[in-house]
Amino acid sequence: MKRLAWLLFLLATAACQPAVTAIPTARPTEAETAEFTSTHPSEVSAPIPTETGLPPVYVPALCTLMGRPVRSDVPAGKPVILVWGWSAATEEQVRDYIRVRMVVVTFDGNEVEGVQSGGIPYDENAKLYKAVWMAAVGVVDPGVHTITYLLAFREKLFDGFDYYGPGTENEKLEDKCEIDVK
């Protein structure tokens, strides 16, 4: 599960700043822990524009896989952008991931299409290459909303730390998270 700690670090550095709500982690170390739900992007080369002109709230498409609670709070009236990503020891390993991955992210049962942001930059702090995807879901009504994440692989993949895909302990990754808009 060391790989999940690196994925947490990737997502936190790719799309997060100070948190809207504190979401504690269970598995990653304190150095790898960052607040996830955010009102401002950092290190995102091309933030997704919002129709409202309001600063968006960036929400991870994963929660329990990262040792976080199922539900997090999001302020009402702000556009919501879902964020997910992948990191690996080499740029080629990230390119392999892009080639063999099958990702389905839904918001309230509707599949969302992620847009890759920023290519495959090298994160000097993490010493990893990373790729980040974002999907704008707009300003959502107050209440509880469900996000699902399913990642499967067409073939076996190595990220420099662990193996993923057919025949490995990590054949697929699934998560179901909620945001409470209030």
Keywords:
mainly beta; five-stranded mixed β-sheet; 12 strands; 13% helix
Task: Please characterize this protein's 3D structure.
13% of the residues lie in helices and 38% in strands. The protein is mainly β and 182 residues long. The protein has one domain. Strands 1, 3, 6, 7 and 8 form a five-stranded mixed β-sheet that branches. A hairpin with a 2-residue loop joins β4 and β5. The radius of gyration is 15 Å and the shape is globular. About 23% of the residues have low confidence.
Task: Tell me the number of strands.
Answer: 12
Largest sheet, described in full?
Answer: 5 strands, mixed
Which oligomerization state do the chains in this entry correspond to? single chain
Portion in helices: 10-25%
Provide the β-strand percentage band.
Answer: 35-45%
What's a quick, concise take on this entry?
This protein has 182 residues and is mainly β. The strands form three sheets. Strands 1, 3, 6, 7 and 8 form a five-stranded mixed β-sheet that branches. A five-stranded mixed β-sheet has the order 2-12-9-4-5. It has a two-stranded antiparallel ribbon with strand order 10-11. The radius of gyration is 15 Å and the shape is globular.
Give the helices and strands, then pairings.
Blueprint: H1 2-15, E1 57-60, E2 71-74, E3 79-88, H2 91-100, E4 101-107, E5 110-112, E6 115-117, E7 122-123, E8 128-139, E9 143-153, E10 157-158, E11 163-164, E12 172-181
Parallel strand pairs: 1-3, 2-12
Antiparallel strand pairs: 3-8, 4-5, 4-9, 6-8, 7-8, 9-12, 10-11
